[in-house]
Amino acid sequence: MITRFAQQIRADHYPGDRSTIASTASGITHVINTATGHGIDAAMLTAAKGVIERAIADGYGSEGLARLANVLHKGGTGGTA
Q1: How does DSSP classify residue 14?
Q2: How many CB atoms within 10 Å of residue 18?
Q3: What is the DSSP secondary-structure string of 17-36?
Q4: Which residues contact 73 (CB under 8 A, 6 or more apart)?
Q5: Cβ atoms of 72 and 51 closer than 8 Å
Q6: Which single residue of 8, 16, 36, 50 has CA 20 to 30 Å from 67?
Q7: At a CB cut-off of 8 Å and minimum separation 6, what does 48 contact?
Q8: Consecutive 10-residue averages of pLDDT for the chain (81 residues)
Q9: Smallest Cα–Cα separation from 9: which of 55, 67, 52?
């Protein structure tokens, strides 16, 4: 996965053919809800969800997960470049 993501980042091309950022948002929400329902600290997952939500707000929901590296680089939790 790391090699594939590195290639996508270098090419600035993030196909959503395996998984999209939008589908990940749905999945992580379920994991957070389940974790908190069992008393497990979900702070890291919640932070990751914030990055995912920022990517969706920026219009990248249909792209692959490697796009998140760019969102993080630009301050994916609400910061600016």
Answers
A1: -
A2: 10
A3: SS--HHHHHHHHHHHHHHHH
A4: 81
A5: yes
A6: 36
A7: 28
A8: 95 94 95 97 97 96 96 64 38
A9: 67
Helix, strand, or coil here: 52? helix
Q: Determine the Cα angle at 51 with ends 67 and 1, to 5°.
A: 40
Q: Specify whether the CB–CB gap between 20 and 61 falls below 8 A.
A: yes
Structure tokens belonging to residue 61: 């929901």
CB 70 within 8 A of CB 30: no
Q: In degrees, to the nearest 5, what angle opens at C-alpha 74 toward C-alphas 68 and 77?
A: 70
Say what the pTM is. Answer: 0.82
